[in-house]
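[Discussion] Sanity-checking designs against the backbone

I'm trying to build intuition for which residues belong where. Below is a structure token string of 467 positions. I'd appreciate it if someone posts a full sequence so I can compare it with mine line by line.
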């Protein structure tokens, strides 16, 4: 390589390696201990510069034994996406171009790509087309943005200017959510300056859905600015709240309704599943991930807010050099936290272009269909039961009554030890369960068959040894 290109050698080394990495069978879970990883990573900081390509080789050698196989077709553990090759390719370009998607002027291409993606997301999810969309790092940050807009709006309605006064002297805000809501919503509540004492946990049913009557009663007791956080796609059961009832209650009590739809919101892109989300379009804000079901590389999430002004007021960064865009285009930073930021629109743009409307529908529907198949087949396995109503991509598997307490943990350990699949046990509604998430675009019917066969085979051995 000519001398003037020597500094580009790391790019070529990484690109070469990347294609090979995705092309071969890879371990599903890390083989190295934390100690072994430290031995590779936590080396002395070199005194002087090193050769770039050699550093990349060292990074590969250090990281590989500690990688988790969520890009693999046999991965059913957490609800995580597979970083599709098209998304990764666009993500490379994002880094190669090194754009700062702060304001329109720092990267017109990045700003307009976000504009395009925002309108596609609203179209795919069939949400109000005039809503504003912030491209953020994930659903936790999307909830933060939605709730920050909510805080601004509910306090403004109560005659309090949050942007001027903060929470000092503000009327108390109450946040209502299911006692079984995703924990990151509580984190987002703290991020907007509220705490546990402001949270009202509403009783939920056996699928994790808030009981509308209980919510109505709670809203009746607590007067004043209120925010409801509802779930579209419960992390374990995949269940959807009764949004028709919830949006009615929100309206009645003047509450802001935020929907955590990290993965479940994509059910709206599927005509066969859209009924699950009925009434959800009446909410005030929504959070949804790009990096889960859509397979966009990390970090990708969308914060969607009906009240564009509240969204902008909550996120605004004002300085004379960050001049208004005029007719130029949008300033990405108006709708998400941070000034200097990754040009998140490029990878999302490429993924949505490659899938198209039909591709998004087919991806989500295929996983939901397989979840039903897996549930039906596992229900027929003696000693196992499916503990959730399978409406989406999540299957919760429990042992029948009378099975020793550690049976599910043993099942999970042995499945993972086989190296053929990766699953995770969890505890839900006081029961040890195996939670299976079908959410990787590269998963095919063959991996689904293999998963069911492995579970059935190992489970019958576990039962056999227990006599
Ligand atoms: C993953 C998830 C979140 C958090 O999203 P991140 O992208 O990990 O920040 C919130 N709610 C639900 C239901 C989720 O599945």
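Best answer:
Here's mine. Compare freely.
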């Amino acid at each position: 390589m000519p001398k003037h290109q020597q500094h580009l050698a790391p790019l070529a080394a990484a690109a070469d390696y990347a294609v090979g990495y995705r092309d071969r069978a890879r371990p599903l879970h890390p083989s190295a201990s934390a100690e072994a990883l430290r031995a590779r990573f936590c080396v002395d900081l070199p005194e002087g510069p090193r050769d770039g390509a050699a550093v990349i080789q060292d990074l590969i050698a250090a990281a590989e034994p500690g990688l988790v196989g969520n890009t693999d077709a046999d991965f059913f553990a957490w609800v995580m996406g597979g970083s599709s090759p098209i998304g990764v390719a666009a993500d490379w370009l994002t880094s190669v171009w090194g754009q700062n998607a702060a304001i329109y002027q720092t990267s017109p291409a990045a700003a307009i790509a976000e504009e395009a993606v925002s309108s596609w997301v609203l179209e795919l999810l069939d949400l109000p087309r005039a809503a504003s969309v912030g491209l953020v790092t994930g659903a936790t940050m999307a909830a933060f943005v939605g709730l920050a807009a909510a805080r601004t709006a509910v306090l403004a309605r109560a005659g309090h200017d949050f942007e001027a006064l903060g929470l000092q002297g503000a009327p108390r805000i109450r946040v209502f959510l299911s006692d079984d809501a995703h924990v990151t919503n509580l984190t987002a509540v703290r991020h907007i300056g509220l705490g546990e004492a402001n949270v009202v946990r509403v009783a939920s049913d056996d699928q994790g859905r808030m009981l509308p009557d209980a919510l109505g009663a709670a809203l009746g007791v607590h007067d004043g600015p209120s925010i409801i956080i509802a779930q579209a796609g419960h992390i374990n059961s995949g269940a959807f709240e009764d949004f028709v009832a919830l949006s009615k209650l929100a309206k009645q009590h003047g509450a802001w309704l935020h929907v955590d739809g990290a993965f479940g919101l994509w059910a709206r892109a599927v005509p066969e599943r859209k009924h699950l989300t009925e009434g959800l379009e009446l909410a005030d804000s929504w959070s949804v991930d790009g990096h889960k079901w859509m397979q966009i590389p990390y970090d990708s999430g969308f914060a969607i807010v009906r009240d564009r002004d509240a969204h902008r007021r909550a996120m605004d960064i004002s300085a004379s050099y960050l001049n208004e865009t005029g007719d130029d285009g949008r300033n990405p930073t108006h709708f998400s936290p941070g000034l200097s930021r990754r040009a998140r629109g490029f990878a999302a743009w490429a993924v949505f272009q490659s899938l198209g409307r039909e591709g998004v529908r087919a991806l989500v529907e295929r996983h939901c269909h397989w979840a039903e198949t897996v549930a039906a087949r596992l229900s027929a396995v003696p000693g196992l039961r499916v503990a959730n109503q399978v409406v989406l991509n999540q299957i919760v598997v429990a042992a029948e009554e009378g099975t020793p307490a550690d049976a599910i943990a043993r099942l999970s350990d042995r499945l993972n030890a086989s190296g053929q699949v990766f699953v995770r046990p969890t505890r839900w509604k006081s029961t040890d369960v195996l939670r299976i998430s079908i959410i990787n675009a590269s998963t095919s019917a063959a991996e689904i068959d293999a998963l069911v066969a492995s579970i059935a085979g190992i489970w019958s051995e576990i039962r056999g040894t227990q006599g």
